[in-house]
Design brief:
By secondary structure, this protein is mainly α. It is built from four helices and two strands; from the N terminus they run αβααβα. It has a two-stranded antiparallel sheet. The model has no long low-confidence stretch (mean pLDDT 89). Bound molecules: iron/sulfur cluster (2 copies).
Amino acid sequence: MHQYAAGRPDEQDKGDLQDFAKKILEKMSGDPSGMSDPQIPGNRPYKKAGGAGLVPKAGHKCTSCGLCAESCPAQAISKENLRETDSKKCISCMRCVSICPQSARKVNSAMVAAAAIAIKKACSDRKNNELFC
Ligand code: SF4
Ligand code: SF4
């Protein structure tokens, strides 16, 4: 869904990151007794990851190099059978899709189109970086 956050990170993001680095350095060089727990917004309890609807599958271009299985953060791709992805573990991060040297891993395009419509409202506005410390 490259239509969202196109062109990010941009110059503004790079400036934000430099600011972040300075603030973190200041914090780390300060008095540790003045540190407090960061107040991070969000819904609690967080939803358990896994069971996502968009699960990539390896197609005929797959050369069984194993890179996707090694890189999957959820260990959802079977190392014994690289064509097998556990949909209960997959978090739809698409790392395997972007990392595959053969562009062999794909998601059903109709599902992607439907998901893009579903998240359009939430993802159309620019989301700025925020630092919690
Ligand atoms: S990274 Fe691509 S080519 Fe390598 S095993 Fe995975 S799907 Fe196949
Ligand atoms: S989309 Fe992410 S979690 Fe799902 S199989 Fe690929 S790398 Fe693993």
